[in-house]
Amino acid sequence: MPCEDLPTGESWRSSVALRHARDSNEDNSVMATRSTLVYSAAAIRRMMGLPASVPVQLREFLDVVWVWVKGDRPTFVSKADFKRHFVERRQAAAESLTVIDWLSDPPRYMVTNPETGSNHLVVEQGDRLDCDCEDYQWQQRFIGRGCCKHGYAVLRYLGFDSLGDFLPGNFSPDEMRPAANA
After folding, report:
1. Is pLDDT larger for residue 144 or for residue 66?
2. Burial class (CB in 10 A: 0-12, 13-18, 19+), 114
3. DSSP assignment letter at 32
């Protein structure tokens, strides 16, 4: 299933401008999709160390994503690399967050970003960590499971290095699959 059709001529410029606006939108008002949540132009720019202004085209295939960066030859990037980046980015963002053990039945944690003062509630539900943030809600909707930076902050607070360590045998980044109803 393609992430984006490959336009030509003037429509190509319009499409790139639209894609750039979609990827660089900081207020998160742009709706995510199952494909753009993990396999996005913004993600490949970060993975390749490219500035946000560089035009990128993507097309999703079974195990790879076809990537074309303006001025370069197209290449394929494995979906596993995108998924690893998806997880590692959230783990890195979790390092600056603080966690307060709030209630014990069920275990609840208040996760605070000291830089912005924002707070999110993370609830341990046995087989998952639920969060009230938008990123977690998108992951639930399109992947069927997941972990946001607030969840990774709680995992770190509890002494786990990954969600897979917290839930042995239940989850790994390479097992991220679309939800059945997505």
Report:
1. 66
2. exposed
3. P
* Domain end call among 78, 112, 132: 78
Total domains, the chain: 2
Strand order in the sheet with 56-60: 56-60, 64-69, 75-78
Q: Which of 78, 111, 128 delimits the end of a domain?
A: 78
Give the long-range contacts of residues 57-65, CB within 8 A, separation 24 or more: 57/4, 57/6, 57/16, 57/19, 58/3, 58/4, 59/2, 59/3, 59/4, 59/6, 60/1, 60/2, 60/3, 60/35, 65/3, 65/39
pLDDT at 28 over 50: no
Closest to 61 in 3D by CA, of 144, 139, 143, 3: 3
Q: What tens digit of pLDDT does each residue of 31-86 get?
A: 678 788 999 999 999 999 999 999 999 999 999 999 999 999 999 999 999 999 99
Determine the structural domain holding residue 14 and report its residue range: 9-78
Cβ(150)–Cβ(94) under 8 Å?
Answer: yes
Q: What is the pLDDT of residue 8?
A: 40
